[in-house]
Amino acid sequence: MTDNSAVELSIVIPVLNEADSLRALYEEVVSAISRSGNCEILFVDDGSTDESLNILIDIQQNDARVRIIKLRRNFGQTAALSAGFRHARGRIIVPLDADGQNDPADIPRLVARLETGFDIVSGWRRKRHDNTLTRTFPSRIANWVIARITGVKLHDFGCTLKAYRAESLKCIRLYGEMHRFIPALASWGGEKVTEIVVNHRPRSAGKTKYGLNRIFKVILDLITIKFLASFSTKPIYVFGGLGGISMLGSFLSGFAVFYYKFLAPEHLAMNRNPLLVLSMMLFMTAIQFILMGLLAEILVRTYHESQDREIYIIEEILESPGRKV
Ligand code: UDP
Ligand code: MG
Predict the structure, then answer these.
(1) Whose alpha carbon is nearest atom 18 of ligand 1?
(2) End residue of a domain, out of 186, 206, 231
(3) Please, are residues 169 and 93 in contact by the beta-carbon 8 Å criterion?
(4) Which atom of ligand 1 is nearest to 17's Cα?
(5) pLDDT of res. 124
(6) Which secondary-structure segment (H or E) carries 167?
């Protein structure tokens, strides 16, 4: 029954200690995809220490569409999703949370929207059922900032429930907690991204795996991807720019020292004046920045050339039909 080449849809579900919600979720997924051709349900066990894995194996006994990837330890949601994306066989990939907060009933709508000509359809949890103070409110701000900085106009980057064309995930590598930035990375690569409102429910069982420290991780990840996207082929522009600014500051400060020492009508007491030290410090910082930029240039070349990565992505090359290749 499982013809690998023709899997239409892969549902990817990262699981960390969700024993109490897995069965109900599985039932919901099955009824949601019942009309979607050849599907697979790929659970990624991210080092669960409860009964999750046994429950999954039990579910698999009766359903050949269920695949399980067991990670050796807990690597985090992004890593679990990456593993799932890498091993998914479907033409379309839909990840969702294992805790039942995403509603599998939304899957057909996401897929239908994807088929109207998009590469990624992101879920927007318009009505969230999470703690307002620690989750919903920070996430509103985060989404606003991410949308501004990445230039990708989505309302809800953090929603796991999205639909992807499998190819659009191929050239994206994920680190840290970057799964929420996939739409941004993809859209920079020229993919078409849109969103639809999806249902969101309170956690049915178990507890959340995240706390407030997630905010800092998101900010740092955001800085990283912005830097990589804007300057990964020309880091010297960033570091050289910063070096230039420091150098300018150094000269200004140095000139002030010179002025007060030799040109000013009244001699000021130089022994209490920090400008000389400032000037030297800025000068050294400038040299450091520029050297760092040069190092980064070397790293970038290693990065691109060792993986045969080009600095562009070709969509298609159109040859004249009359031409013999
Ligand atoms: N998860 C995971 N590995 C982790 C943390 C979370 O696989 O290290 C899974 C978790 O089982 C759930 C999904 O990622 O299916 C989202 O986690 P959670 O519900 O805790 O996040 P929240 O909904 O609170 O943002
Ligand atoms: Mg959750």
Answers:
(1) 208
(2) 231
(3) yes
(4) 11
(5) 95
(6) helix 166-170
Residues 48 and 133 in one domain: yes
Do both 180 and 258 map to the same domain? no
Q: Are residues 22 and 55 in contact, defined by beta-carbon separation less than 8 angstroms?
A: yes
Place of tokens 């029954």: 1
Work out which ligand 1 atom sits closest to the CA atom of 98.
Answer: 15
Atom 22, ligand 1: residue with shortest CA distance: 208
Handedness of CA 149, 153, 159, 160 (dihedral sign): negative
Q: Is 25 within 8 Å of 55 (Cβ atoms)?
A: no
CB of 154 closer than 8 Å to CB of 122: yes
Whole-angstrom distance, CA of residue 292 vs CA of residue 287: 8
- The alpha carbon of 253 and the centre of ligand 1 are apart by a number of angstroms equal to 52
Residues lining ligand 1, CB < 6 A? 14-16, 18, 46, 74, 76-77, 80, 97-99, 101, 208-210
Probe target for ligand 1 pocket from 135, 137, 209, with the most ligand atoms within 8 Å of CB: 209
Q: If you measure from the C-alpha of residue 297 to the centroid of ligand 2, how many angstroms do you get, rounded to a whole number? A: 40
Task: Profile the chain (325 residues) by mean pLDDT over runs of 10 residues.
Answer: 71 96 95 89 95 94 94 94 94 95 95 95 92 84 91 92 92 84 89 94 86 84 86 89 97 91 71 84 97 93 82 79 72
CA-nearest residue, atom 21 of ligand 1: 208
Ligand lying closest to the C-alpha of residue 18: 1
- Specify whether 194 is located in the same domain as 133: yes
Is the full-model pTM beyond 0.85? no
What integer pLDDT is reported at residue 94 of this predicted model?
97
Which amino acid, residue 189? G
Domain that holds residue 108: 4-231
* Distance from the alpha carbon of residue 36 to the mean position of ligand 1, in angstroms: 26
pLDDT at 268 (0 to 100): 61
H or E segment and range at residue 233: none
